[in-house]
Amino acid sequence: MPPAPRLGRRLGTLDATAIGLGSMLGAGVFAVFGPAAALAGPFMLLSLLLAGAVAYANAVASAALAAKYPSSGGTYVYGREQLGPWAGFLAGWGFVTGKSASCAAMALTFAHYVAPVHAVPVAVAAVVALTGVNLAGITRTALVTKVLLAVVLAVLAFVAVAGLALPAPGLPASAHDGAPPGPLGPVTAAGVLFFAFAGYARIATLGEEVKDPSRTIPRAILGALAGAFAIYAGLALLLSARLGPRLADAAAPIHDLVAGAGPAAGGIVQAGAAAACLGALLALIAGVGRTSLAMAREGDLPGPLARIAGSHSVPWAAELAVCAVVVLLVVGGSVLTVIGFSSFGVLVYYAVANASAFTLPRPERPWYSPRWLNAAGAVACLTLAFTLPLTSALVMAGVLAAGVAGRAAVLAARRRRAG
User: Fold this and answer.
1) What H or E segment, with its residue span, contains residue 38?
2) Most confident of 34-48, 119-133, 168-182, 215-229
3) What is the mean pLDDT of residues 36-44?
4) CA dist 344 → 34, 98, 202, 239, 383 (Å)
5) Higher pLDDT, 365 or 177
6) From CA 315, how far away is CA 321, in angstroms rounded?
7) Which end of the chain has less neighbouring CB within 10 Å, N or C?
8) Sign of the C-alpha dihedral, residues 33, 36, 38, 44?
9) What is the pTM of this model?
């Protein structure tokens, strides 16, 4: 039997870093600080440091594993190889289902920024258009991501300059003035902020398309994470200083920060938020498609999803399937009620990544990923997962259980046919 076709290695360090950073500077950078401040109160910076520490543990685990297993699929592959098929399936199924919902939510967020009256058709058009970019090849994905990232960075630079130069905006008093956070508030806020850093997984899921993966992937993952943390920390300091306790009530804190600069400033922030949504959505679709490809290769998803074709070596069947699922979620409109379970799924995904890295023998373990850090990362992921709202945890646990039951039924049917 001929070997399965492989994807082409076309991404350099700059391309991979841009995809990771573009994923982390999604719509969350324009909205996450308000909810985090409401939960953490004056301890938001502590929450950001905790989120960054958990993200770092996950990043180094992912980097170490991606260097050893430079193929599509990310933690799905690592879990299978290091812990067994069931652990890999749990990670892959959580990623594919949770991130498909995230894709739909990101598309709708973009549409609400640019055309709120026609949000659903605009969101569908965005999903279809970005799928077309991905079908044109991974180098096109990287190019468009870099263009969108440049727009986002330029807007954030404008926001930083305007925020420092303008007088503090005159906002109404906040109900959070002087109110202490709950006992788990800063930890829950860290869970909210953590997902702003989760984009480095996209670099790992594209591992089969990276040049010199043992060097490029660790550099890209750690470089993207460092850049994202610096930007989020700078914005957190600026917003906390300028908005104070009123940050906790802000639905669009970056817009509030530059409101004194006039209507044009609001338009600039809107354009930056739209570009951030598109950049994150583009990388999300690519990442879910590659993980679906890897699962199809192993029989954990339908085999036809493993098809690769075209001069650009793209997983066209998986990409089209992801597009169809996301469009259905957008049109159904129910995604906004279930998107919370994506957070739980991502933390389970990274818990598997840390556990997989923990099992690496010393000769295969890079210096930057010590075993104690892998163990701490796994515990931290599960801790954050179970501080999420109960409904979100229960919904995602049900989705994971349904996937496990489905896989068990398929394996039993295969054994009966073989016997």
Assistant:
1) helix 33-40
2) 119-133
3) 86
4) 21, 8, 17, 28, 11
5) 365
6) 10
7) N
8) negative
9) 0.83
Contacts of 153 (CB under 8 A, 6+ apart): 25
CATH topology assigned to domain 13-414:
Amino acid/polyamine transporter I (1.20.1740)
Nearest-angstrom CA–CA distance, 221 and 199: 9
Burial status of residue 130 (CB atoms within 10 A of its CB: 0-12, 13-18, 19 or more): buried
DSSP letters spanning 119-181: HHHHHHHHHHHHHHHHHT-HHHHHHHHHHHHHHHHHHHHHHHHHHHHSPPP--PPPTTTTPPP
Question: Which is more confidently placed, 35 or 128?
Answer: 128
CB-based contact 267:61 (threshold 8 Å): no
* CA–CA gap between residue 314 and residue 286 (Å, rounded): 10
Token reading at 302? 């339908």
For residue 1, what pLDDT is reported?
Answer: 44
The b/e string for 70-93 (b: 16+ C-beta within 10 A; e otherwise) is bbbbbbbbbbbbbbeeebbbbbbb
- DSSP letter assigned to residue 210: B
- Contact status, residue 364 vs residue 130, Cβ threshold 8 Å: no
Answer for the pair 177, 44: CB distance below 8 angstroms, yes or no.
no
- Is the distance from CB of 203 to CB of 217 less than 8 angstroms? yes
Structural domain spans, the chain: 13-414
pLDDT over 80 at 324, yes or no: yes
Distance between CA atoms of 61 and 65, rounded to whole angstroms? Answer: 6
Q: Which residues are 188's β-sheet partners? A: none
**The residue type at 385:** A
* Distance, C-alpha 329 to centroid of its chain: 18
Mapped onto helix, strand or coil, the DSSP state of residue 314 is strand
